[in-house]
Amino acid sequence: MDYSIGEFSKVTGLGIHTLRYYEHENLIIPLRNASNRRRYSEKDIAWISFIKRLKATGMPIKEIKKYAGLRAEGDATLSERMEMLVQHRQSLNEQIRQLQEHEAMLDEKIAFYRQEIEGHQEDTP
Questions:
Q1: Does the pTM of the predicted model rise above 0.90?
Q2: Helix, strand, coil: what percent of the chain each, to 5?
Q3: pLDDT at 28
Q4: Residue 63 CB partners (closer than 8 Å, separation 6+)
C-alpha cells in the first residue's frame, strides 16, 4: 500500500511541512508517481517511526541526518550505523544514571519533609 503526503501525515502524526522538511534534509526520500506526487510506503512508515524514536531519545538532528545518509548508502554501512546506535545508547544510559541520582536526591528531600511534618504534628496538642 502507498500513501499520499496527506495520508502519510495522518498515519505518522507528522505535519505535511515536517515531512517536506524531512525530505529537504534527505531524512526520507519518497517515491514519486507519474504525476510527480509523493508516494510513501509501509517501509517509510517504519523509517519515520524510527526517526521519531531517535528524536524522542535525544539524538540530534545532525546525527539523525548522518544515520539517514549511511542508511541510504546501503548494507556497506551496517557496522557504522550500529556503532552510532551503540554510542547513542551509552549516552542514554548516562542520562538515565543522572536522572536516577536526581530522583534519589528528591526522595531524600521528600523523606526529610515528611519527617519534619510528622514531627510538627506530634508537637501540636
A1: no
A2: 75, 5, 20
A3: 95
A4: 54, 84, 88
Mean pLDDT for the stretch of residues 40-53: 96
The answer to whether residue 112 is domain-embedded is yes
CA-CA-CA-CA torsion for 85, 74, 39, 65, nearest 10 degrees? 40
Question: Domain containing 16: what range?
Answer: 1-60
The three cell numbers of residue 69 are 545518509
User: Where do we find the cell 534534509?
Assistant: 25
Total number of residues shown for the chain: 125
> How far apart, in Å, are the Cα atoms of 101 and each of 61, 94, 108, 110?
28, 11, 11, 14
Burial class of 41 by CB neighbour count within 10 A (0 to 12, 13 to 18, 19+): middle
Q: How many domains does the chain have?
A: 2
For 105, the grid coordinates are 536526591
C-alpha dihedral sign at 66, 71, 72, 74: positive
